[in-house]
Write a structure and sequence with these properties.
single chain, 587 residues, alpha/beta, seven-stranded parallel beta sheet, four-stranded antiparallel beta sheet, 19% strand
Length: 587
């Protein structure tokens, strides 16, 4: 969701962001480890066998099979939809042999962390407790100040009466985009036939403010928990369920639950309501408990979405282990270049397959405070195994995936005043839309957690993080509890472009519900039409004046320069999404 683009997930706790900035940390990074592993192996003939995804060129399946055999490898299976072969081979020697064949478009290691099995069944033993997550305390001084005159006081959206559900007054984000009781909820709250896939760390399908809209039958978990990385460092931690396979209504991180809640928490008199409170949520889990996203589960999730009538997917993450995928970077080994080429190629094929089957694709742009048109260095890759990162020189040919992949709508984040959030990536080529993602520093005085996004959180995750007292009382201002008729639900304030993307996904779901045509799975709508209407109904927002906007972060300032016109620019793309306009616009 890092030097940079935030975490592997593109969202994090506001207190964590503020503390890092106050300490003068580069960008707005946090460190949670990540993913698919660089292709490193011994070059001797006795190299250990490893599994690989071998992406073959169009029409070159048979020649790719021969290349695998010639390299001393064995074919395990073929995925014709995305045109890749799962093979076992002897490390770097095997990779180098395949690289010499024009039948091979890319090679990526497969650690067998993900599977394509159906929804898993929990063991009767239930979850085991895990170590608590340590959260840095909020800074005691303002970490950033910027030209206040460039933006209005966003506090006008905070703490005002705002809707039918009890915590609606805390949802400044929904007021900004018109997703309120007297706005889009009154005219177009969504259609239950619209299926929204959340490709993330999971969804707490039993959360009281998610369960009414959660489709357990369609939901799938494409990963298996991995307690440690290859070097023995803790990755996901102890397994909570039999065979390390979480059920499809479970989330051990909380990120996916927060995203799902923003999209479609129901209007039920409890807690909050999402952008489209009557659409259906489908968990397509591709992220580890640790917040890492490997290639194979992402491919599986997108393929499943395409084959099972999902209308729109939210992707608030990037594919590990490379923050930026460079296919010919001289700083990388040949094997590493091939792995990055495999990620770019494989994900593009999966995204194309999904889009060709009617799936609208929406992604968080990232949390690195980076102009993606002018990236210079990457200090967080490769991030798996843990502690493998090094500094690389990069350029605009290097891509963040899926945010910079073709056919994907990338969303930047704004705070309550509508200024681009300090952590949000940006770029005239990369930013398609903007949406509320929070910014605890967007306003006068000290950092304020209520300037970030409030959405559902799994109770067991909050307990592991020591954010609840023994009696269930919130132990931090970033957590809110709401109870009704003996049922209590928990909510958490988070900030990130991860939080912005689901606002756009919810608006897309509204449009699909209004203009989609009946299908065997419910409704369907061409992604190109959804994209066109998302852009047409967004609120065009001009660059600040001056365009070089100075954020005061840590001891030094940081300048982000907005390029483009009001109709499309690097901070806001085509504008800030607007649910109220989408609910009433004509086609």
């Amino acid at each position: 969701m890092k030097r940079a683009r935030g975490r592997r997930l593109a969202g994090m706790a506001a207190a964590t962001l503020a503390a890092l900035l106050a300490a003068g940390a580069p960008g707005s990074a946090t460190a949670t480890a990540a993913a698919t592993a660089t292709v490193t192996a011994t070059t001797t003939a006795a190299a250990p066998l490893r599994d690989y995804l071998v992406f073959y060129a169009d029409g070159a399946h048979d020649r790719a099979l021969r290349a695998i055999t010639d390299g001393g490898g064995t074919t395990l299976s073929t995925e014709p939809k995305l045109r890749y072969i799962v093979a076992k081979g002897p490390g770097a020697r095997f990779v180098e042999t395949l690289a010499a064949s024009d039948a091979v478009a890319g090679i990526s290691s497969d650690r067998r962390i993900g599977t394509t099995t159906a929804a898993s069944t929990a063991s009767t033993a239930g979850p085991r407790p895990a170590a608590a997550t340590v959260r840095p305390a909020a800074t005691t001084r303002a970490a950033t100040r910027a030209s206040a005159a460039a933006f209005p006081d966003g506090n006008a959206l905070l703490g005002k009466k705002g809707g039918a559900d009890p915590l609606a007054a805390r949802q400044w984000d929904m007021k900004m985009i018109g997703a309120t009781a007297d706005g889009s909820h009154a005219t177009a709250p969504g259609d239950r036939r619209v299926l929204v896939g959340v490709i993330d760390t999971g969804i707490d399908g039993k959360h009281p403010d998610i369960a009414p809209n959660f489709d357990a039958a369609r939901s799938r978990n494409f990963v298996t928990d991995r307690p440690e990385d290859p070097n023995g460092a803790e990755l996901d931690g102890p397994c909570e369920f039999k065979n390390c396979k979480d059920p499809a209504d479970w989330d051990d991180d909380g990120h996916g639950t927060h995203v799902a809640s923003t999209i479609a928490s129901p209007l039920n008199g409890l807690g909050i309501a999402g952008v489209a409170p009557k659409v259906t949520l489908v968990n397509l889990r591709a992220g580890q408990d640790s917040g890492l996203f490997f290639l194979k589960p992402s491919l599986d999730a997108l393929t499943y979405a395409a084959d099972n009538g999902i209308d729109v997917v939210n992707m608030s993450y990037y594919v590990d282990p490379w923050l930026f995928n460079c296919t010919a970077n001289p700083d990388d080994s040949r094997a590493e270049q091939l792995e990055q080429r495999g990620i770019v190629t494989g994900m593009q094929r999966a995204l194309d397959y999904a889009r060709d089957h009617g799936v609208t694709l929406i992604s968080a742009i990232g949390n690195g405070s980076t102009d993606l048109g002018r990236p210079r260095t990457d200090t967080s890759s490769p991030d798996y195994p843990l502690e493998s990162e090094r500094t690389r020189t990069i350029d605009n040919s290097c891509l963040n995936v899926p945010a910079e992949s073709e056919g994907v709508i990338s969303v930047s984040a704004v705070g309550p005043s509508k200024r681009k959030s300090y952590f949000s990536d940006y770029g005239i080529e990369q930013t398609d839309l903007a949406a509320p993602g929070g910014d605890e520093l967007d306003g006068p005085g000290e950092p304020d957690v209520t300037r970030t996004i409030l959405a559902a959180a799994p109770e067991h995750v909050l307990r592991k993080q020591n954010l609840l007292g023994s009696d269930g009382t919130p132990a931090s201002p970033e957590v809110v509890r709401d109870c009704r008729d003996g049922t209590c639900a928990y909510y958490q304030y988070l900030a990130g472009t991860s939080m912005a993307a689901p606002h756009a996904t919810g608006v897309a779901a509204i449009l699909i519900g209004r203009f989609g045509t009946p299908s065997a799975d419910g409704v369907t709508m061409p992604p190109a039409d959804v994209e066109r209407l998302l852009y047409a109904t967004a609120t065009a927002t001009a660059c600040p004046s001056p365009r070089a906007y100075v954020y005061r972060m840590g001891e030094d300032g940081e300048t982000h320069t907005c390029e483009g016109k009001k109709s499309r620019n690097g901070f806001y793309g085509r504008g800030i999404v607007n649910a109220a306009t989408a609910a009433t616009a004509s086609r």
